[in-house]
Design brief:
The chain is of the alpha/beta class. It has two domains: 295 residues, Alkaline Phosphatase, subunit A, CATH 3.40.720.10; 139 residues, no CATH class. The chain is built from 13 helices and 21 strands. β3 and β4 form a beta hairpin. α7 runs antiparallel to α8. The longest helix is centred in the middle third of the chain and has 26 residues. It is globular. The protein starts with a strand and ends in a 16-residue tail after the last helix. It binds zinc ion.
């Protein structure tokens, strides 16, 4: 490896199909990077969700080791979940190891960097920054320096699951431009050896516009005013990446990655409705209208299991000694879980047709399961269906997401592209995983891999 400078550009949710195929001819900068570098699908973490995926990528640890099973996680003695933040990351990330070796680093907009923490350089919190007076930069003086230059910081797009598509598009473009502007400023003024940026606008764009840009979406209309927005937004990203590459120069290695992919969302499987139908979950009264599962309405002594929805379902047993009103004795756990698993594997929709279901127990997949792991993790129809936690829907499969208009679900494969700065030219590669990113970055700097981390170094 030649140069010891590197920029990692994270495009949250960018799928191989759009970057490598559909929009490639409109993205000369990314295409050039692929032509003179190494690229391929990047298998996401389990689960393939922003939190934990970026943290898995940057630490070489699986979600169980991190104790992060989604954006929200359970806390002891409660059945509710709490939103994760940067304080929940208790392992080193790649910029910590680089900093220890004397490299100057800049971590910009990476999920789970709020509150910002000391690094050997700069950190700007990502979209989970709570706003207001909460700090969003390390060191704090950087906040004023950046706002003088780009105006008030835009961490995320407000209300992106709504029908105001033209407003959402304008907000996404403004935010993306601002983020890349900040990245250019930090690169030029602070001269880090390693800089990483994550653009969340790509994820927001997919959730808002997928139905309109993907002809394979079941509710896609051939004629719609937003049809070309995908090509337009990806061209804008490519132009911004091109500017950053030009500022970086030939000797800087460039890596472009995503944390997971995207695919058309066909609807959702109402997992708590299913648990009710199968007798695992009891409510004290039937909800009058569809809505989130109200834990105050659950008849806990008569409940064996309940679930949290999202991109996948997390099923929790109502375990005696662990839950506030646990009903399942510890010696019954194995039997109940096996039975539940068998029934789930034969789940059917409202028309009696089989729904393909992937069920995993955390200890079968993770090296460790820290924090509060679910008892079962369930993916529906290869991620064509979300898991819907709401009850009162009266159906097992519904068309819409229960958290607002949404056309896209996450998919297993994200992207990896790297080139420049002496990165080996391998062309298209197969089998890359999200855990490979940290050893590969460290490899590019000629550093040995820290003990215990997952993944393969693609510079070797
Ligand atoms: Zn993501």
């Amino acid at each position: 490896m030649g140069g010891k400078r590197m920029i990692v550009i994270g495009l949250d949710c960018a799928p191989p199909r759009l970057v490598f195929d559909r929009y490639r001819n409109g993205m000369p900068n990314l295409a050039a990077l692929m032509d003179r570098g190494t690229w391929g699908n990047l298998r996401s973490s389990e689960p393939p969700i922003t939190v934990p995926a970026w943290t898995c990528m940057l630490s070489g640890r699986d979600a169980g080791e991190l104790g992060l099973y989604g954006f929200r996680n359970r806390v002891p003695h409660e059945t509710r979940l709490r939103l994760a933040n940067g304080n929940d990351v208790r392992v080193k990330r790649v910029w910590d190891w680089l900093g220890e070796q004397g490299y100057r680093v800049a971590a910009l907009f990476v999920p789970l960097t709020s509150p910002p923490t000391p690094v050997r350089g700069q950190m700007v919190s990502g979209f989970m920054w709570p706003g207001g007076d909460s700090p969003w930069c390390f060191p704090r003086e950087l906040e004023g320096e950046l706002t003088d230059c780009v105006g008030p910081y835009r961490a995320d797009v407000e209300d992106f699951r709504s029908d105001e598509l033209d407003r959402i598009y304008r907000d996404i473009v403004t935010m993306t431009d601002q983020h890349f502007e900040i990245a250019e400023q930090v690169w030029n003024r602070k001269q880090p050896d390693f800089m990483m940026i994550v653009e969340i606008g790509v994820d927001r764009f997919h959730h808002a516009f997928w139905r309109h840009i993907d002809p394979e979406h079941p509710r896609h209309a051939d004629v719609n005013p937003w049809k070309n927005r995908g090509r337009e937004y990806y061209q804008l990203l490519d132009a911004r990446i091109g500017r950053l590459c030009a500022a970086a120069g030939e000797d800087t290695a460039i890596m472009v990655v995503s944390d997971h992919g995207a695919r058309a969302m066909h609807g959702g499987f109402c997992i708590n409705e299913w648990l009710i139908q199968k007798g695992y979950l009891s409510l004290r009264e039937t909800p009058a209208a569809p809505g989130p599962l109200d834990h105050a309405l659950v008849d806990w002594p008569r409940t064996t299991a309940w679930a949290e929805g999202g991109y996948y379902a997390r099923i929790f047993l109502n375990l005696a000694g662990r839950e506030p009103a646990g009903a399942v004795a510890p010696d019954r756990v194995r039997g109940v879980r096996d039975e539940l698993r068998r029934e789930l594997e034969y789940a059917r929709n409202d028309r009696g047709e089989r729904v393909p279901v992937l069920v995993r127990a955390p200890e079968e997949y993770y090296r460790q399961a820290r924090g509060f792991p679910p008892d079962l993790m369930v993916y529906f129809d290869e991620l064509k269906l979300r898991a819907i936690g709401s009850v009162g829907t009266g159906r097992l499969v519904v068309e819409a997401n229960d958290s607002g208009p949404d056309g896209c679900n996450h998919d297993w494969d994200g992207i990896l592209i790297m080139g420049g700065g002496g990165v080996p030219v391998r062309g298209r590669i197969e089998g890359a995983e999200i855990y490979d990113v940290t050893p590969t970055i460290l490899g590019a700097f000629g550093l040995a891999r820290p003990p215990g981390i997952l993944g393969r170094d693609w510079t070797l």
